[in-house]
């Protein structure tokens, strides 16, 4: 498949995914704001079309704007999410029409565009990859909104994968140098670049993510009420928000259950814990006598092959993700059981490092040495600093196109609506 065919196919797949997510939702729920943390679903739908128009029609093809007012309404940096219901948003029918018109013009221009390798936006079809990944990321955002929505959402739920025994709880990752980031991934974002050599001291990494059952141990040990395990900021946040358990969990006379896309169900003890903020992950790790891994440690455990001295694109190698290697693309609308996907383990034996849950790391989101903002500073540069923590590995809601060992996600340490979990590490 050549670059243009790959771009066309990627655009088709992501658009069908977006429409499949919103089509079952009543119109009033597409317009409604389900949480001040999230945009109305109809805003996300039109936003991906506006982003596509800006980059693929105006920047690349040189065409005029369809409606310049849309740039203000759908600029993610001009209006906070909690304010977007006050804007003159396109309604669901108008949004579908708009993104369909933009897509039709994009496909027409794609045939004529010369993918000039001297233009960094066009080399290897970078700008098309950026637009595809951007929409997939918004699809995951819409899934988080759908989880917050009141009311059942139709789910496709095939049989869960069967976990294989985990014979060791943690693995030793030897110290030494490895190559962090990427300079060769065609669609890598600016924050993944450039590749650079780093040294990491030896450490132990958990073989699998922390499970719901593991996390209940922390709750039952009164971990939410014991300030020894919490940082000063975390302890203040725990009290300010009255945190007592992960978001969407409930406890009744029969035990723990959870709400998942409007359904109340028994909490699966063997799934990776999700919907925990960074402060909760940090407190659990302290209670367990461990810590959260740095993102350097996480990437080495996921990507480095010590025998060949070569970096892998995914934990299992360079081949694309398949259902037997990782839980991605909302296949189950939930994480798989810990210990599943042994075929997708890293060279060191760590399982489920891609898919299931985003994993909090201890690292602040900062630029790599020599990194430059491209193609726009609002993607990464404006977020660098101590206000954001790095997450790695993707979740069950992440599309394979939008994840790899070098991919860096980030969020405020208080966020829980995202599909976030963690695994622990400890120093040697």
Low-confidence stretches: none
Radius of gyration: 21 Å
Return the domain count.
2
Order of strands in the sheet with most strands: 12-11-10-13
Total E-strand runs: 14
Compute the number of helices: 10
Strand-residue fraction? Answer: 5-15%
Shape descriptor: globular
Report the span from N to C terminus.
46 Å
Overall pLDDT metric: 95
Structural class computed from helices and strand pairing:
alpha+beta
Quaternary class: single chain
Succession of helices and strands: HHHHHHEEEEHHEEEHHEEEEEEE
What helical percentage do the residues reach?
25-40%
Account of the protein in words:
With 428 residues, this protein is α+β, with helices and mostly antiparallel strands. The chain has helices at 3-22, 27-31, 41-59, 69-73, 92-110, 126-148, 212-220, 232-240, 278-287, 295-303, and strands spanning 170-173, 176-180, 196-200, 203-206, 249-252, 255-260, 263-266, 304-305, 310-311, 358-365, 385-392, 409-411, 420-421, 425-427. It folds into two domains: 3-148, Four Helix Bundle (Hemerythrin (Met), subunit A) (Up-down Bundle), CATH 1.20.120; 159-428, paralog of FGE (formylglycine-generating enzyme) (Alpha-Beta Complex). It contains ten helices and 14 strands. The strands form five sheets. Strands 12-11-10-13 form a four-stranded mixed sheet. The chain has a three-stranded antiparallel sheet with strand order 1-4-14, covered by helices on one side. A three-stranded antiparallel sheet has the order 5-6-7, with no helix packed on it. The longest helix is centred in the N-terminal third of the chain and has 23 residues, at 126-148. The relative contact order is 0.14.
């Amino acid at each position: 498949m050549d670059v243009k065919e790959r771009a066309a196919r990627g655009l088709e797949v992501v658009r069908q995914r977006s429409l499949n997510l919103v089509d079952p939702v009543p119109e009033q729920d597409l317009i409604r704001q389900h949480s001040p943390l999230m945009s109305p679903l109809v805003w996300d739908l039109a936003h991906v079309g506006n982003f596509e128009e800006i980059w693929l029609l105006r920047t690349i093809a040189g065409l005029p704007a369809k409606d310049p007012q849309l740039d203000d309404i759908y600029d993610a940096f001009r209006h906070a999410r909690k304010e977007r219901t006050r804007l003159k948003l396109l309604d669901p029918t108008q949004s579908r029409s708009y993104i369909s018109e933009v897509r039709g013009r994009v496909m027409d221009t794609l045939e004529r565009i010369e993918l000039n390798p001297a233009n960094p936006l066009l080399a290897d079809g970078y700008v098309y990859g950026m637009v595809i990944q951007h929409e997939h990321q918004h699809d995951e955002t819409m899934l988080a909104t759908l989880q917050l929505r009141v009311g059942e959402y139709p789910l496709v739920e095939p049989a869960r994968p069967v976990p294989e025994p985990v014979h060791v709880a943690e693995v030793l990752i030897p110290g030494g140098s490895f190559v962090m980031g990427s300079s060769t991934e065609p669609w890598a974002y600016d924050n993944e670049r450039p590749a650079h050599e780093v040294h990491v001291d030896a450490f132990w990494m958990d073989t699998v993510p922390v499970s719901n059952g593991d996390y209940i141990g922390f709750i039952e040990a009164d971990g939410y009420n014991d300030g020894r395990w919490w940082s000063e900021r975390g302890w203040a946040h725990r009290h300010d928000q009255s945190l007592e358990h992960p978001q969407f969990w409930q406890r009744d006379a029969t035990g723990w259950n959870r709400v998942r896309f409007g359904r109340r169900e028994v909490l699966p003890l063997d799934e990776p814990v999700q919907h925990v903020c960074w402060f909760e992950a940090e407190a659990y790790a302290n209670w367990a006598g461990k810590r959260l891994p740095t993102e350097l440690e996480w990437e080495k455990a996921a990507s480095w092959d010590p025998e060949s001295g070569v970096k892998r694109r995914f934990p299992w190698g360079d081949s694309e993700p398949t259902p037997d290697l990782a839980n991605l693309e909302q296949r189950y609308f939930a994480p798989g059981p810990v210990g599943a996907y042994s075929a997708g383990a890293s060279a060191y034996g760590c399982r489920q490092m891609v898919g299931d849950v985003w994993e909090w790391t201890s690292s602040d989101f900062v630029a790599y040495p020599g990194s430059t903002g491209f193609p726009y500073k609002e993607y990464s540069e404006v977020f660098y600093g101590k206000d954001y923590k790095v997450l790695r590995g993707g979740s069950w809601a992440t599309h394979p196109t939008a994840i790899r060992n070098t991919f860096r996600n980030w969020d405020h340490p208080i966020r829980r609506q995202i599909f976030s979990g963690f695994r622990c590490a400890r120093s040697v």
